[in-house]
Amino acid sequence: MKKTILLILILTTTKSVSQIYFSPSAYMYVKSEVLFVQQDINLGAGSNLYLRNNSQLVQGTTGTSTNSGTGTVSVYQEGTTNNYSYNYWCSPVGDPSAIGNGNFGITMLSRPTTSTSSLAATILPATNSDGTASPLAIAQKWIYKLINATSYSQWVFVGGTTTLAPGQGFSMKGTSGTDGTDPEGTGVTNNPGSAQRYDFRGKPNDGDITVNLLANNTTLTGNPYPSALDLNAFLLDASNTASGGTAYFWEQDKTVNSHTLINYRGGYEAYSPVSRNSPGIYTPATFSSYNGDGTVNNGGSISSLIINRRFSPIGQGFVLNANANGIATFRNSHRIFVKEAPGDSQFERNTSKGSNTKKEQSNEEAVEELSYLRLNTIINNQFTRQLALAFLSTATDGVDYGIDALNMDDDLPNDVTFRIEDGSYVIQGINYDDTKKIALAVKVATATTFKFFIPEVINFDPNQKIYIYDALDDSYHDVKNGTYEVSVTPGVYNDRFKITFKDATTLGVENNSLKQFFISQDNINKNLKASNPNNFALKSFKLYDVLGKTVLSKKDLGTDENYTFSTTGLSSGIYISEFLTTDNQRFTEKIVISNSGK
């Protein structure tokens, strides 16, 4: 196939090419756009590809990368400026000495001085704890990786070596001071005091990148490409089921300025993709303090960080907790061009650089709405545990891959979580039924006060009440419009507290009109029928197969009394129908489709 030979090219519009060969000392400058290369890139000696102002490189290679040459790509990313706080990273580039993806080390990071020039960062001795912004100096003391670990002691020191394999994440603390250099002349400096810019220079990572996993072990990995990564595509890839289906992001209380472990306050945010085209659900970290041996101490608060985690930006690291021995493979098909900005794709740091909210995604399906609630529990007025309960027609009462998220901070002495199949979870999905009672697992090491309340309800019937049921005295407490505060003695309570949607003491006054919606399957005429005698305003209809795939859908149905949907062409089997009203009441029914007409 013919290759494109480049001498000097400034690219300011979206460009797609089959292959690229950079002659020695040539360069390409890409500004505010995506460069899509269908196959490989050959970077001649001394050549450079500059990705600037949120530009990204996407490649279409399948299988192993064949990128070659000793030239480099240069791409920026900003991390925290607090030299007491960690970011978790995963490099988008590697050593350019061999064909394919190479290893990475922090000696490949530099400080931009102009739009094309950078100065290599100083790597401080391992005895030095504090990095600086200008000149850029990185404290190698805090560079660690985590591979299939079961305890805090299994973090592996990396320091200044170039030994991080593609797809391996690493921890790195931030910098102190400011850097007023404006390399692109846009008014955005390297470090205004809120975000430290790093220039990653090396061969661009490409193709399949595999991470080995062991059951019930945690591994630090992350987005390994010089483009955004669709976490839903990665986590829900059928070949990546060993990943556990959830990504976890470290958050640290940046108001605590200490290098001493016992003073740290941090925890893990959980992100569940739920479905391929959903925005996903996250629960923020519960900040906790740590003892000198890495075990969790009491105290802390809930993180206030709110980040859309679906589109993982360049350099973002995250943790996987494997549910089986196996591998997880990052692929070019998981890559996507989403510019970094709040609400789209955002690196975890103090503030976002996101003045640009442009998003370009080819062939993206409409984003699916999710229905869920958040339950906050203030524990001893010291910290808050937040749980998320999602309502999904395809969810079961057991563990659902890509929906239910394990609790990664399970060592808290006093805590509240969901209990599913003997595991502790912070996100749970259920098939909504207003008669269900969802058990909370409560553990108490010392006499503790718990205060329950609902801070947020998303796409859920606003008229539906939500209670905490306390089996100790058979009482119901409205936590949607108020709080329930209770003191609990030491012990483990797996069946005392439950989320419910009905107060059994007032069931006699139930409004039966809400039940007047009927769904049935007519297999003789091959139609699904819905009767709506109360003329509810219907926002959408969806029909799911047993794997959760949407096989029929329609929006804005109106207020008709009767609806008919053809099921001709659908395979025989069990399906779940779902109608959603404009005020988020949900009507579901399991139906059986038979092609025999019987």
How many beta-strand elements? 51
Strand content: 35-45%
Query: Which range best describes the helical content: under 10%, 10-25%, 25-40%, 40-55%, 55-70% or over 70%?
Result: under 10%
Secondary-structure-based class equals mainly beta
Number of helices: 1
Arithmetic mean pLDDT: 87
Spatial extent as radius of gyration: 26 Å
Main sheet overview: 11 strands, mixed
Describe this structure in words.
With 598 residues, the protein is mostly beta strands. It folds into three domains: 16-273 and 310-350, no CATH class; 369-510; 518-593, Immunoglobulin-like. The protein has one helix and 51 strands. The strands form 13 sheets. Strands 34, 35, 36, 37, 38, 39, 40, 41, 42, 43 and 44 form an eleven-stranded mixed sheet that branches. Strands 1, 3, 5, 6, 8, 9, 11, 12, 13 and 21 form a ten-stranded mixed sheet that branches. Strands 25, 26, 27, 28 and 29 form a five-stranded antiparallel sheet that branches. The termini are far apart. The model is unreliable at 350-364 and 509-514 (pLDDT under 50). Residues 172-196, 342-363 are annotated as: Disordered.
Give a quick precis of the structure.
The strands form 13 sheets. Strands 34, 35, 36, 37, 38, 39, 40, 41, 42, 43 and 44 form an 11-stranded mixed sheet that branches. Strands 1, 3, 5, 6, 8, 9, 11, 12, 13 and 21 form a 10-stranded mixed sheet that branches. Strands 25, 26, 27, 28 and 29 form a 5-stranded antiparallel sheet that branches. The chain has 598 residues and is mainly β.
